[in-house]
What does this fold into?
Amino acid sequence: MLSKRTVKKSIPAINNYNGKKKLIAIFRHWQLYILLLFPVVWTFLFRYYPMYGVQIAFKDFNPGLGILQSKWVGLKYFRMFLTSPQFGQLLLNTFSISIYSILASAPVPIILAIALNECKVRVFAKTVQLVTYAPYFISTVILVAMVNQILSPYGLLNNVIKLFGGEAVNLLAKPKLFRSIYVWSGIWQGAGYSSVIYLAALSGIDKELYEAARIDGATTLQKIIYIDLPGIMPTFIILLILNSASILNVGYEKIFLMQNPLNLNVSEVISTYVYKIGLVSAQYSYSSAIGLFNSIVSMVLLTVVNYIARKTSETSLW
Amino acid sequence: MTRKIHIRITIGDKIFDLINMIFLTFCLLVVFLPLLNIVSQSFSDPPSVLAGKVIFLPVKPTLASYERIISNSVIISGFANSVLISVLGTLLSVSLTIMAAYPLARNTLVGRNAIMWYFVFTMLFNGGLIPTYLVVRSLGMIDKYAALIIPNALSVWNIVIARTFFINTIPNELYEAATIDGSSDIRTFIQIALPVSKPILAVMTLFYAVGIWNSYFDSMIYLKSQEKYPLQLVLRNILISSQLQSQIIESSGGADQSQSLAIAEALKYAVIVFSSLPLMILYPFIQKYFVQGIMIGAIKG
It folds into this structure.
C-alpha cells in the first residue's frame, strides 16, 4: 500500500509540477544536479566565458590592461575587415570551397549506401563497407601527407601516367586544382563513413513497403526511386542543414595543412586567416572581429537553411 | 502468369546486380589501391621510390625506412606523448559526457529542456579562436598538456548520443523501482545505469580517443616545447612542412642531393604507415562500435 502510493507520486511528468512541487523534485534529486555541475561549469568556462570575451572585437585589446580596461572602439575592426583588400577574395574562397564540397559530397554516400544495401553477396558488401569506412580513421595530417605523396612528381598518379607513356604532371603546383583536390580527397575519406548513416536510415524503412512493391511487380530501380530515396530524405536534409552551418568553417585544419605559397591565393579562407592574424601576428582584436563576423554569418546561414527546409520538406532541426 | 512476371523481374534485377557489383568493386579499388601503394612504397628501396617504379607491389623490398623511424627519437617520443594525452583526455571526456547525459536522460530532472539548450546553444554559436585562446592562457595552460585535454573535453553531439542511449535502454520503471528500494540517484547511476551502458561507454571512448589521437591544431596553438609535441604535430613538421624543402633540393640537382631526396621520400611513406598502424590494427575490432554509435545518432537525427 505504502509503496503503491510512492509510485503514484513519482509517476506524473515533471511538466505538470507547480512551483512548490518543482522545488521538492529538485531537492529530492539533488544528486543529479551534482553530476551535472561538472559539465555545466566546464561549458560555462570554455564555451560561454569566451562569448563574453568576444567583446574585444569592439575594443583595442591590450593584454596588459585586460578585457574590461581596454578602450572601446566600436566597429573599427569590422570596418577594417570589410574594406580590406583580402575581404572579397577570402569570402569567395570560403564560399566556393564549401559549396563545391557540399554539392559534390552529398550524392556519393547515398549512392554507396544504396549499392551496399542492394548487394546480394553479403560478404562482399561487408568487405566494401569495411574498406571504404577505413579512411575515416586517418588523421588530417596523414591524409594531407598521403595526398601530397600520391600526387607528387614521383607518386602513384605520375607512376601510372608514365607507365602508359604519358607526361608527368605536378598537380600540387596548380592552384586551379586546389579546390578539387581538397573536395575529392574529402570524399575519398568520408564517403564510407557517411554511407553508414544512410544505411541506418535505409534499415529503418518499413519492410512491408518492399513486399507491396514486389507484389506490384516493381523493378529494383523503381524500388530505389520510390521507396529508398524518399525514405532517406529526412536524413539527407538534416545532414545538409548541419553542413550548411559549417559553410564558413570549412575544414580549416585540413586547408591549413594543404596551403603552400603557390596556392595561397585560392586556399586562404576566413578561418585560416583568423588564425594567422590572431595567433601568428597577435592582432587579437582584429582577429576576434573577423571570427565574430564568421560566427554570425554561420548562424544566419543555418537559420535560413533550416527555415527553407522546414517550409519545403517538413524536416528541420527545430 | 506469375512465372512470366517472375522472369521479367529477374532479368532486370540481374542487369542491375551486375552494374551494382561493378560499381562496388570500383569503390573498393578506389579506396584500397592508394592505401596499397603507400604501404608498398614504404617497403621499397629508396632509389626505386624516387624513380617512380612503385605501383602496387614493393620494388626491391627493404626495411631500411622503418629502421630509420625506430632510431628517430622525435617520432618515438611523439608517439609516447600521444598515448599519454589520449588516455588522460579520453578519461576526462567520457566522464564529463556521461555526467551530463545521464541526468538529462532522467524525466524527473526539473529544467531538463533548459539545461539541454544550455549545452546545445554552444553548437550554434561560440566565442571563436582568440577569445577561447585568451581564456586558456589566463588559466595558465599554455605549454601544458592540460590545454590539449581540458578546453575541448566535451562534445555536445556526444552528449546527445549518450542521452538518447540512456533514454532508449533504461525504462523509467527501473529508476522508479530503484527509488522505491531507497537507492539514491548516484547509486542508481553506478549500480544500474553504468552496468548496462557498456556499449555506449565503448562508443564514447572510441569517438574521443580517435579524435584526440588525430588532432594537431590545439597542440600547434598551445604547446611551445618541442619535447612535448604529440605525434600528429611531429608528423606535420616532418611530412608537410618539409615538402617544399625537398622540391628545392630537387630543383638544385646534384647526385648526393638526389640520394638524400630518395631516402626522404621513402621515409615519408614509412612514417605514414607507421603512425597509422595502431588505429589500422584496432580498426576491424572497433569498427562495429562506431557503426553502433552512428546508428544511435542517426535514429535521434
